[in-house]
Amino acid sequence: MRPGSDLMRELLASDFELSFSADLMYGDSRVASGLEVVSPSVVADSSAMVEMSGRLGVVWADPEGSDVEPFDAGDLFSPFGYRVVLFAVVRAGQFVARQQIADLTITEVPSVDGEPFVWGQTTIFAGQRVDLVVKDRMVEVQRDRFTRLEQPGSLVSAWDEIGRLTGFVLTRSVDDVPITKSVVYEESRVDAVQQLAALLGGVAFMEWDGTLSVRSSTPGVPVAELTLGENGTIVSQSRYAVVGSGVMSAHDIRPHHDVDLIVTKNLFETLKNDGWQSVPNRNSVLKNGNYEVDVDYKYGEYHPDHNGLIRNAEIIDGVPFIRLGELIKFKKALGRDKDKKDIELIEQYLIKNKI
After folding, report:
1. Is 200 domain-assigned?
2. Does residue 178 lie within any of the structural domains?
3. What's the domain count of the chain?
4. What is the pLDDT of residues 157-193, one digit of tens each?
5. Pairing of β 240-243 and β 259-263
6. Whole-model pTM above 0.70?
7. Residue 172 structural domain
8. Is 161 helix (H, G, I), strand (E, B) or coil?
9. Does residue 1 sit within a domain?
């Protein structure tokens, strides 16, 4: 999963324009930034040895007007060490968010299109389109095959051995395990990596940021649903949001003791089936230790749009919290002395921070 900023989340829930850009990389060096990308067609196939592959065009304008078509191994865009880091660029009015989505290796000599013009005795290329064939960085492992049967350098750590075989930075997404003595590597280095990933309980793949990770064979609980709305709008519908004093604690207004959440009906049923306990005389509430979830969050005259509270939650450190304005409404409906004190603290916080 690709992390996104609060700005990106807000833009995706509005009318937006989507385009793509790319940075040209050679090893760890960024050769060029913000190149315009045209006609991207990159797809992912989780069953393939190299999951992500496709084509994309890059608009190149050489400052000296030189032809960018590569002829030698060290030339720009040659399939000998050059990569493109692909970004999605989302615009809504004056706001712009740029999100990296892939780190891709150039695998073939590109085709270059662009008519030159002659100035005196000099041929000048004002701009060229470079059409690239790309795959994710697992292709680099695919190319590097074993020449004989080999065994792991150490049996202590499957993750460490994956790092040794690939040379990639790792995102250690699952718990480490030792390697069994029966593991032997044949010709394919990718097969060797996948053999180790299977010991970890998953499948090795390249993350959006170019690191190597392992996707667990056992899917976790979904964290959100994405619904396509009008005009390409994406509405993010999370499955829960923190309510009560936890919201105040997230804003450093006052500490909290228990954690209260509102959840979707599907998540409520999942937690109920997982053994969360019902609360007497409160059919819409489940409890597990210090955690309490409510599928019907209301009190007195306060009857909010339950899914709206979750959908419009404020994300703080990756966790969704209902808005402070909604918490004030709820506490006004409760009307207890401690709720009145909390309202006063929240309003002082809003004034101090000019919210």
Report:
1. yes
2. yes
3. 3
4. 999 999 999 999 999 999 999 999 999 999 999 999 9
5. antiparallel
6. no
7. 143-216
8. helix
9. no
